[in-house]
Amino acid sequence: MTLLRDADLADAFDHAARGYDRLVGLNAGYHADLRRSARRLRLPDGGAGLRLLDLGCGTGASTAALLRAAPLARITAVDASAGMLERAAAKRWPRGVTFVHAPAERLAAAGVTGPFDAVFAGYLFRNVADPDAVLAAVHGLLRPGGRLAVHEYSLSGSAAHRAVWSAVCRTVILPAGRRTGDAGLYRHLHRSVLDFDTAPVFAARLARAGFTGTRVLPVPGWQTGIVHTFLGRRGGRIASGGAA
Ligand SMILES: C[S@@+](CC[C@H](N)C(=O)[O-])C[C@H]1O[C@@H](n2cnc3c(N)ncnc32)[C@H](O)[C@@H]1O
């Protein structure tokens, strides 16, 4: 199948927005894993004085994870889907959290400018047409020493993990997508994970984009080898021993 991109993908997420939180709720560990990746940013002092960007915030699950890791930070949460963003904005947030409707490829035009102390991207990069261009833009938005955490379906490269992913899609994700009328989006989810960079390849992509101290960390449970946290910095090094 052809993957969904840009406006077609935003339309598909608009349609899926209503059932999105219920669907991800079926995935034990979805929220805990996002929180784990956000914690891995190791943001100091509860985020006091920090400006953070949640890129591809969806219905706000990744924003909530970031807020848990840095409750005192100011957070700008951005998404290309108006429907997903509407769901996010309807939730209760502290005053420091703001939502912006924009594609990751056109942040400046929407008034989203740096510098940010950290950027978090939960399940975004597999969806963008040109991940190198978005990584370059993110690098440019970070202050020197600023941190990036990408939480993504990125397979380990082992045939076993690829087979587990396809089995979960066949038995759980694709049937659920058919039930909610979002079959196209969930076929995209299945295929986009199979086609996306493996974890070592995405880590090399980060390094090519100029990120330093890059690290790849697993998540526990059935998603081991399927979902990873990728960490990097604009200049400098991630402190060692930081895995949560
Ligand atoms: C799988 S959802 C994840 C949402 C949220 N980060 C989470 O962890 O639950 C991916 C989100 O990325 C958004 N997205 C995809 N491509 C995008 C792009 N180019 N620019 C901004 N958002 C994008 C989609 O609209 C969708 O809300």
Automatic annotation (TrEMBL):
Domain of life assignment: Bacteria
Give coiled-coil spans as residue ranges: none
The UniProt keyword set, sorted, is: Methyltransferase, Transferase
**Gene3D superfamilies from the entry?**
Vaccinia Virus protein VP39
InterPro entries in the record: SAM-dependent_MTases_sf (IPR029063)
Report the GO molecular function annotations. Answer: methyltransferase activity
Signal peptide segment: none
- Single GO biological process annotation from the record: methylation
The protein's matches in PANTHER family, at most eight in alphabetical order, are given as: TRANS-ACONITATE 2-METHYLTRANSFERASE, TRANS-ACONITATE 2-METHYLTRANSFERASE-RELATED
The protein, known as:
Methyltransferase domain-containing protein
